[in-house]
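[job 4471] stage=fold_predict status=RUNNING
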Amino acid sequence: TSDEPGKTWHSHVGVVTELFDQLQLDPDNTLVMMCGPEIMMRIACNTLSHHGLRPDSMYVSLERHMECGIGLCGHCQLGPFFVCKDGPVMRLDRVVPYFGKVGV
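[job 4471] inference complete, writing structure tokens
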């Protein structure tokens, strides 16, 4: 999906959550891997939870400014985690308390 399609774009235009109602999900047999802007992932994960998916079945790829790459400088810290060491892909239930918050 694209919110700003080019002239050659022939797929869905809009936000990705508009497509979720078309999915037939079995929450016990579904695993979600997601990347994109953090606000989009937060909204998509929230919408998927309304479809019965649990946070432990959703993974998000986080972007943070990284300086040292070994967890010493703290630039990529997210609560108790360091994106450079513990991520960038993390299970949602581990990071949901810090997801979308600035300065943690």
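[job 4471] summary: Residues 59 and 90 are 5 Å apart (CA to CA).
[job 4471] exit 0
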